[in-house]
Amino acid sequence: MNYLEQPLADFLDSVASGEPAPSGGAVAAVAVALAAGLCSMAADLSADHLADAAELAERAERLRRRVAPLAQEDATAYGHVLAAYRTPDDEDPDVRWGRIQRALSEATDVPLTIAETGAMVAEIAARLTREGNQNLRGDAVAAALLAEAGTRAAAVLVEINMGAGEIADDR
Question: 0.85 cut: is pTM over it?
Fold first, then answer.
């Protein structure tokens, strides 16, 4: 089942299960999506404090819609990595290694997008913390912290996947 379509309790149970996914990338995507949702709400309620509050809310909403589906995409990409590693060792080692590298490259792209999106959400949250409705400062700070956590987690996954796959490009 798609993570976005299941109840929160079921998603949390899936994360805590003994299954390999959803895991860190999916959780990072959800953290950034939650941060973007808080930004959208805080911006909507900051119209008296920020001339561009509506634009900030719209931008946060676009980012939320962009990052939320990446939870599922990360799990799918990780599944491809596991399948590549499970390829029998009796296959041509170069072919097997190429399959693993391609899967790790794909698995790198998803958290990279999560991290990039999280950085944009964090910028919005920081601005709302400073200039938005101060009655919602706690929400803006929570958004900033969630965005930071999701961004950092996703960035670590990028480093891990690139290292494991010996991927030497400029991502």
Answer: yes
What are the E-state strand segments in 10-153? Answer: none
Residue 121 pLDDT: 98
How confident is the model over 13-54, as pLDDT tens digits?
A: 999 998 988 999 999 999 999 999 999 999 999 999 999 999
DSSP state of 111: H
How many Å apart are CA 7 and CA 106, to the nearest integer? 28
The answer to whether residues 99 and 143 touch, using CB atoms and an 8 Å cutoff, is no
Which of 35, 55, 59 lies closest to 143, judged by CA?
35
Q: Which residues of 142-163 are buried (b: 16+ CB within 10 A; e: fewer)?
A: bbbebbbbbbebbbebbeebbe
The low-confidence residues of the chain, meaning pLDDT below 70, are 171
d(CA 40, CA 42): 6
Report the candidate in 38, 61, 58 with the shortest Cα–Cα distance to residue 126: 38
Question: What Å distances lie between residue 54 and 35, 46, 58, 121, 133, CA to CA?
Answer: 17, 9, 6, 15, 13
> Residue 62: CB partners within 8 Å, gap ≥ 6?
none
CA distance 74 to 22: 8
